[in-house]
## 1
Amino acid sequence: MDCRGFQNQILAWIDGELTGDAASAAATHESACADCTERALAERAFEERLGTAMLSDVGSVSLATALMAARERVEAEQPASGRLLMLRRAVAAMAVAAAALIVVGNVMWFLCIPPFECAYLAAMEAAATDAPLAPLSDAPANCALLARVTPPAALGGFARVDDGDFMHVDYRTGSDAVRARYGDDDLAFTAIWSDLVGASPSFRRKVERDGLTWWVTEIDGRAVVAFICPKTRSLCALVGEASEERLIEAARTLRTCP
Amino acid sequence: MATDPGSTGRDETHAEANGSAWETLTPAEFETMVTEIHQPLMATALRLSRRRAEAEDLVQETLYRGFRSLASYRKGTRFRAWMFRILHNVFINRIRREGMAPSAVDPAEMSPADHPHPIPDIRGIGDLPDVADHHFDDTVKAAVDAMPEVFRVPLVLFALGSLSYAEIAETLDIPIGTVMSRLHRARRNLREQLTEYATEHGYASEGGG
C-alpha cells in the first residue's frame, strides 16, 4: 500500500473497519511512513474533538426522571393489557363452549339421543292416535295424496278396517298424511302415508332388514316402523301394538308393491 | 470516535457477546445499561431532531419503548446498537407522522467504493481548538445540523452512537457500501467547513492541507 492508497482508506482504518489483508497493509504502511502516521494521528484527534463538540450541548438531563416516567408508563399499560388478555380468554372460552354445544347438540340430534328423539317418528306416532277425520272432507291436496297412495285393502295379512283419514302430521314445517287402520283378530296398527319428502334416517334408529332400510323405535309402548314409500318417495310409517317384526313384515308388502 | 486502529473501537461488542445468548434484561439491568449511553443517546437525539424539546421527547420515547421491549432484547447482542436503533425508529416514525418526506438520495452516492474526492488533510487546521472553545463546538454542530438527513443520520449514529458501519447499515436498512459513501461525504464536508473556520480564526497552519 502506498501513501495514496492509505489516505484513500484512512477513515475506514482509523474507524477500525478494515479487516484482513487491507488492515495488515494499512498497519504496515502506517508503521513505515512518518507522514501517514502523522496524518492518521491527526485524524484520530480530530474525530475525537468532533465527538466532544457534538456532545457539548447535551447539558444536564435527569436520566432518573426520564427512566421513572418510562417505567411508570409501561407499568400503567400492563393492567390494561392484563384485563384485555383476560377478556380475550373469556371470549375464546365462550366461543369454544358454544362450538362444543353446537357439535354435541347436532350429534345428539343425529343419533336421536333424548331429548332429541326422532321428531318425524314421534309425529307419525301422534298422527296414528289423532281423532279420525272424515275421508275427502279436507283440502284438495289431501285428496290428491289419497289418490296417489290408494291405501291397499290388506297389508301383510292385516285387513283394512276403515277408509283412509286425512291427517296433518306435525313435523317441522308440517306435512299432510293419509291414514288407514289395519287389523286381524288379535292386533291392529295404523299405516300413514305422508307427503314428507327428504327425511333422512337417523343413525340410531336405522335398521337393515334383507337389504332394506327401516327406521324403528318405540314410543309410549307402541312400535313405530318407518320407511321411504317407493311409490311417492315420501315417508311412510306403521304404528301399532304389533311387534316391530310384524310391522316390518306388513310394511314389506306395501313397500314391494309395484 | 474510534481511536484504536486495527480494532472496531467498539469494544462493547465483544464484552457484551460474552453474556448468555437467550437471557433478557431485567428492568434494573436495563436502567444500569442506559445510564452508560444516556449522554450519546441524548446528543444523537439532539443532532437528529435539532431541537432540544423534541430531542428530550425522542429519548423519553426511546426509553419507554426499550422498557416495553425488554423481552425482545437478548443478552449478548449489543445493547448500544439496539437502543440507537430504537431511537432511530422513533425519529423516523415521528418524521412520517409529521408528513416530512425523507431527503432524496443523491445518485452520486450509488458508487460507494469510489471516493473521487479524498478527504482534505486535517493537518491543515493546525492545532485543534481547545475543548473550551464553544464557538468551535457550535460551528461543528451547526455544520452537522445543516447536513441533509441522508448524511447527518449515519454520521451521528457513527460519531455519537459509536455504531459500526454494519450496525448503521442494519439500523438504516441500507447497504454497507452506501453507509461508507454517506459517511465519507459527511466527514469530508465537515472537514472542508472546519478548515474554512480554522483559516478564518487563525488556527490553520501555513502549508497544511
## 2
Amino acid sequence: MLPRRLTRPRITLGSPVQLLLLAASFALAAYAGVRLLADDWFGVALWFVGLALLHDLVLLPLYTIADRAIVGGLGAVRRREWTPYVRVPAALSGLLLLVWFPLISGRVDRRYRTATGLQADVFLARWLLVTAVLFGGSALLLALRVRRAAQHRPPAAR
Amino acid sequence: MRDPDAPRLPSSPGFWRSPLRGPWLTSVLGLVLLVGITVLFVTGLVSYAAYNPNLSPVNDKTPDKGILGFYLFAWPTSPHWLYRLNQGVHVTLGITMIPVLLAKLWSVVPRLFALPPARSLAHAVERISLVLLVGGALFEFVTGVLNVQLDYVFPGSFYPLHFYGAWVFFAAFVVHALLKMPTVLRNVRHLREEKNDLVSPRPAEPTVSRRGALGFTGGASLLLFATTAGQNFDGPLRRTALLAPHGGVDPGSGPNGFQINKTAVYAGIDAAETGEDVWRLVVTGRTGTVRLSRTQLAELPQHSGALPIACVEGWSTSDQWWRGVRLRDLAALVGHDDDPPDVFVESLQRRGAFRSAALRANQVADPRSLLALHVNGEELSSDHGYPARIIVPAAPGVLNTKWVTRMTFRGL
C-alpha cells in the first residue's frame, strides 16, 4: 500500500494575483447577481446558463455543419474555389435573420403594430430582398471572375 | 475521404480543424470587443442615469441598486441631443458588435471542451468566471436585441435584468481583460509568434485567410450598422434602416407623421376623456390647485422649441418643432415663481411602465421644457399625446409624458 500523501493528486494554487483579481470580480458579480436573481432566480439563471449552452452546443455546431456542407458540396463538384461566393451571402443573410428574428418571423406582429403604428409585415419581405441582393451580387462577382479566368486561360490549356 | 483516425471527441485538440483559429485572430477580436463593450457599458450607465432613478420611485425600476448607483447625477438638459446621441450609440454599436462577439466565441470554442478541466486552482476559478463572461455577454446582447423588437420573453422587467446583468457581465469582463491583456499585446505586436492550444494540430486546407475572416466579420458588422443606424434620422436616411424596428417609413405623413413609441390605442387612451369639455389639466403647487381647460392653456404665453424624441430602444427622430406652455410658467402659476421645484407628472395612460414620471428641478427650470399643445405647426395628434404632452431637452422618450392630466410641483 502506498503512503496516503502519494496517492492524493497534487492541486497547485496558480497565480495568487490572478486569484485575488478573480475574488474581487466574483464579489462584484455576486452583489449584482443577488439583485439580478431577486425576482425570478430560476428563470434568470436558466437564461444566463441556457444562452451560453444554446450558443456553444446548438448555434455554433449548426453553422459549422452548414459551412462544412457548403465546402464539401462544392468540393464534390470540384468547385471548391467558389466557397466564399456561397458562404458569405448565406452567413450574412443568416446573421440578419438571427438578429431580427422576432420582427422577421412576425412573432411580435400585433404588439409591434399597435404600439408603433407601423406595418409589421414588411420585415420578412425586406429580409428576403436583402438576401436576394446578397446572393445576386455574389453570383455577379462569381460570373465576372469565371469570365475573366476564361479570357486569361491560354487556348491550349483545354 | 474520411480519415479513420479523426478524433471523435471535441475534447481532443485534433477535433477542431479550422486553420483560422489561433492567438492572433482571438487577440484582434478581443481588442475590438474591449473597446466596443467598454463603450456599451459606459453608454448604458449614462442611459440609466438619464432616467433620474434617485429622484422618485416612479422613475426607478431598480430600487435595490445600492452602491451600483454610486455614480448617479442630476441629468442635464444640454446639449438637447445628449440622450439621442448616447442611446443611438448604445443600441447601434451593440447591434454592430454582434458579429465580433460571435466570431470571438467561435475562435475560442475548443477551450470549452479542453481537458483537463483545470490545471490549477486559479485556472479552475478563472473557468468559472468564464461562465459569467460568456453567459453575461449573451444575456446582455440577447435581452437588448429582444427589447428593441418589443419581444418581451425574457424572465422579468427589462430594466433590472439589463442593468444588473450588465454589472455581473462587466465584473467578469474586466478581470478577463486584465488577465489576457499581456498575451493579447504580445500577439498583436508579433514580438513572438505564439503557438497555443487554439492552433489546430491537424488543420484542414484553408478556404479563407485569417485576414479574410477578419474582413468578413467587419463586413458583417458593417451590414448590421448600415441597416440599423438610419433609425435615428428622419427623411431618406431612415429608409436605409431596412430591418431596424423604427427604420423604413414613418407611421404617418404631415406634421404629426413622425415616429411613435406607444400609440393612443396601445396606451388605452379613451377619446371621451380628452375632449374639450371633459379634459382638465390639474396643476398643484405651493399655493394650491389650478384646473385648466385646453383653451385656457392656449391663452397662457406660448413658446416654441426644436427638440427630438429619443427612445431607450435606440431610435430617435430629428428635431420637431414643439409649441406650448413653459413648465416653469406652470410652476409659477401655483406659487413657485423664482425657483421651480421638481414635478410629478401623471398621464391618462392606463397601461405601461411610465404612465407617471418625475422631472427634476433643473429640467423644469429649462426654458425649452414645455407642456406642448402643438407640433410642427399643428395640434398634437392623439398618438403624440393630445391634449398636452411634456417635452424636455435631452430627456429619455418615456419621461416626455403624453396625455398629461395632472402635474404636482414639489420637492421630490
